[in-house]
Amino acid sequence: MAMMMGFAMNAQSGNRKMDGNRPEKEHHNPFTPAQRAELRAKKLTLALDLNDKQQKEIEKLMLAGATERQQLMTQHKADREAGKKPTQDEHFAMMNRKLDAEIATKKELRKILTAEQFAKYEQLKAKKHDFSKRGVTKFKKERRG
What we know:
- The chain is mainly α.
- Strand 1 and strand 2 (about 20-25) form a beta hairpin.
- The chain has helices at about 1-15, 35-50, 50-80, 90-110, 115-145; strands at about 15-20, 20-25.
- It has a domain at about 30-115.
- Strands 1-2 form a two-stranded antiparallel ribbon.
């Protein structure tokens, strides 16, 4: 019985490695910030029917955001590995900085996109949010049941 449980637990871990007690994916996001920005801009070009100028401006905007997020993630990972946990004030500052970046991105998108494109972008964003929220709710129900 113990061997079966060990085998089952090992099989469920899949391609994850154990880092302390916390399993992590080996290749969470293999792309560079520039690659992520380019892919995001192309996806938006397809979804919103952007022209070349809009696509280039969006790619530049996405690159700035992706680069900043990469730097913050690297810093956060270094702090976590050093055993440093953020204080409540530091956590508040991080959340505040994230929301400020979202507001700035939204303002820039309003300048780049037409009113129709921006409305469609907001619908796509809301749909993605609803889907991810529904997925979390479904996951929580499955864990309980």
